[in-house]
Design brief:
seven-stranded mixed β-sheet, alpha/beta, elongated, 39% helix
Length: 263
């Protein structure tokens, strides 16, 4: 589910744009619901971490001309089209101790902490950048919490899907991606000093967006799965055909959203 996974899903791949589009279709409604509930509105100053272009555009409309959206990523090339007021695009490494500004009303990070070695330092940086009373919303998947692609494993097609999902998780583990990360967010936010910490999870059991995301993901990691001996080309072709047929009830790892306020 993650966007780079130690370059497992590299943004430079030809399928990257398709991956971002499928991911946005699946998870943007949940993200936007949380941002709405946090009260994002006219004049707000926001930091969008590891910026998703759809979220940046949504925030820009909400804060209006009197607001500000600082959109950061290590690679800002895909954010070029968003770089106009009230959006400011900056190259920034989340693991660095200095945030790209201060006095933010909101900091939002989706699937960003999973790529950071020192997660606590990254959270301290985000909290440091908030004004008193400012909100932090962090969203991360938890593949180990729900490891199956097809929870209803009733036939060979579902068994194949789950075997390939296990192969994908093996590739993530080989790249030292911290799989059980989403469940730790509430504790990490409290340890970072936030108050009123809450969390929930989005877990679609079947959706066309799940199928679109699975299709592009498996094509992105095809060579790695085959090269590692975790699948054959025939396995992958058969699975992609099953996904396209619409006969599989596909899901994803739960997306856990946690939020809190700075004192």
């Amino acid at each position: 589910m993650t966007r780079t996974d130690g370059h497992l899903l590299d943004n430079r791949q030809t399928q990257a744009a398709e991956h971002f589009s499928a991911f946005a279709a699946l998870f943007d409604p949940t993200t936007f619901r949380h941002l709405e509930e946090l009260g994002v509105g006219s004049g707000w100053r926001c930091w969008e971490v590891g910026a998703d272009t759809t979220v940046v555009s949504w925030l820009a409309k909400k804060v209006g001309p009197t607001g500000r959206v600082v959109a950061t990523d290590t690679d800002t090339s895909r954010l070029a089209s968003a770089a106009r007021p009230p959006v400011e695009v900056r190259a920034h490494e989340l693991g660095s101790p200095e945030p790209p500004g201060e006095g933010f009303d909101l900091v939002h990070a989706r699937l960003a902490l999973v790529h950071v070695t020192d997660r606590q330092q990254a959270l301290r940086s985000m909290v440091m950048s908030l004004r008193p009373g400012g909100r932090l919303l962090v969203e991360d998947a938890d593949p180990a919490l729900q490891p199956l692609l097809c929870p209803d494993e009733y036939g060979p097609e579902q068994q194949l899907a789950n075997r390939l999902r296990q192969g994908f998780r093996t590739l993530l583990a080989d790249r030292r991606t911290d799989l059980p990360c989403g469940r730790t967010l509430p504790r990490l936010l409290r340890e970072a000093g936030l108050t009123r910490v809450q969390a929930d999870a989005y877990f679609p059991l079947t959706s066309p967006a799940c199928a679109a995301l699975e299709s592009v993901t498996i094509r992105q990691v095809r060579d790695q799965l085959v090269g590692a001996g975790l699948a054959t080309d025939q396995d992958i072709d058969r699975h992609l055909g099953n996904v396209t047929s619409g006969a599989l009830d596909l899901t994803t790892a739960p997306m856990i959203s946690a939020w809190g306020r700075k004192r």
